[in-house]
Design brief:
By secondary structure, the chain is an alpha+beta fold. The chain has one domain. 36% of the residues lie in helices and 12% in strands. It contains 15 helices and 11 strands. Strand 5 and strand 6 form a beta hairpin. Helix 13 packs parallel to helix 15 and helix 14 packs antiparallel against helix 15. The radius of gyration is 22 Å and the shape is elongated. About 2% of the residues have low confidence. The chain binds iron/sulfur cluster (2 copies). The site of one iron/sulfur cluster (SF4) has 10 residues, from helix 7 and helix 9.
Length: 353
């Protein structure tokens, strides 16, 4: 395993550990609990392919072992001003799927030279899979109260990826790749910083309410942004990082300085993300500017919905109001109407002053 671990490091990955594929069903319980809590539109895919989630052999025949890796992406992303859109750190650069898959494939090929005849399949969110569960099994990842897994050398600012393999052997226990790697500290008793800082109020006494999570509302959500959630959106136009930024344990796990993969370097200037400029964006512009980025996945209409919500929160600005009013063919008329209503109220207020 040392050779695999070494190859992973050479390619910028954090080697976590490995676990027998047979452990997969243990994840079923928590997932069933999640299902019972109700899955809103937009993440309904989580409820599908349950049998594949529980049996990695349905992804790779005779799968015997799961190797887990992480790819760090953290970079500074100042909150910016209320007239400039803010994109979640993970989405500032290239879509991670291709970058991560390429690296995992390299390791898979290396494994095949070490164990001739074996198969290896890379997973990067591309198949139904309990990736957080297997990362935790390595012993060098821990799940926080913010529902995110923190890993050594990257915190929760790291994409998880796995190699499913059918290598023969008698590995019955999960292990970290590096025996000397201590497990990250669990959440200290009493700490709730991530939950109290959550702008959407998604952590409630009744449990996590995904429909109050700004990441969900601005990314997976196929519908309108509920008017009562618009103020919480602030200037976020894609995702939210607050429960990761608030976490003191997370910061301790970042190398200094952080070394994100070059593919994830921010592609966008402040001028480009000005809400006024974004309100002028055509679908053609959107496809060109966001090609190859995670933002591209939600499409022009949903992106503009997010821009409308952020524009509602900008200080009163006649130019923004005029540009909002010029949007007629939106798929999200309720969010647009609320943004126009809010900006009009601010204009009236400014007129009185
Ligand atoms: S991503 Fe943002 S809105 Fe969602 S739970 Fe975390 S802090 Fe709350
Ligand atoms: S902020 Fe505190 S409670 Fe939340 S994940 Fe971090 S350590 Fe855990």
């Amino acid at each position: 395993m040392e050779a695999i671990s070494q190859k992973a490091r050479e390619n910028g990955l954090i080697p976590l550990g490995y676990a027998p594929a047979a452990l997969a069903p243990r994840g079923e319980k928590s997932f069933r609990e999640h299902l019972r809590a109700g899955i809103p539109a937009g993440v309904a895919y989580l409820g599908k392919n349950q049998e594949v989630r529980n049996d990695p052999s349905l992804i790779l025949p005779n799968c015997s072992l799961i190797m887990s890796f992480a790819l760090p992406y953290y970079q500074e992303n100042p909150p910016g001003d209320p007239e400039t859109g803010r994109i979640s750190i993970y989405a500032l650069g290239r879509d991670y799927h291709k970058t991560l898959r390429k690296k995992l494939d390299l390791i898979g090929n290396h494994l095949k030279t070490l164990v001739p005849g074996c198969s290896a399949r890379a997973i990067t969110d591309s198949a139904p899979f309990y990736e957080q569960f297997f990362a935790e099994m390595s012993g060098v990842a821990v799940r926080g109260r913010n529902n995110l897994v923190r890993v050594n050398h990257g915190g929760s600012w790291a994409f998880l990826g796995e190699l499913l393999t059918d290598i023969p052997g008698d590995i019955s226990e999960s292990r970290p790749f590096s025996a000397g790697d201590p497990a990250p500290a669990p959440c200290p008793p009493g700490c709730r910083k991530c939950q109290t800082r959550c702008p959407g109020g998604a952590f409630t006494p009744q449990g996590f309410k995904i429909e109050r999570c700004l990441s969900y509302l601005t990314i997976e959500n196929p519908g309108e942004i509920p008017p009562e959630m618009i103020p919480a959106i602030g200037n976020r136009i894609y995702g939210c990082d607050e429960c990761q930024l608030a976490c003191p344990e997370n910061r301790k796990l970042l190398p200094s300085p952080p070394v994100p993969d070059p593919d994830f370097k921010c592609r966008y200037s402040r001028e480009l993300l000005s809400l006024s400029a974004l309100l002028d964006l055509t679908e053609e512009d959107f496809l060109r500017i966001f090609a190859g980025s995670p933002v591209y996945r939600i499409g022009y209409q949903a992106f503009m919905r997010n821009v409308f919500a952020a524009a509602a929160n900008a200080p009163g600005n006649p130019e923004i109001l005029r540009k909002l009013e010029a949007h007629r063919d939106t798929a999200y008329p309720l969010t647009l109407r609320e943004a126009i209503r809010t900006q009009s109220a601010k204009a009236a207020e400014n007129g009185k002053a």
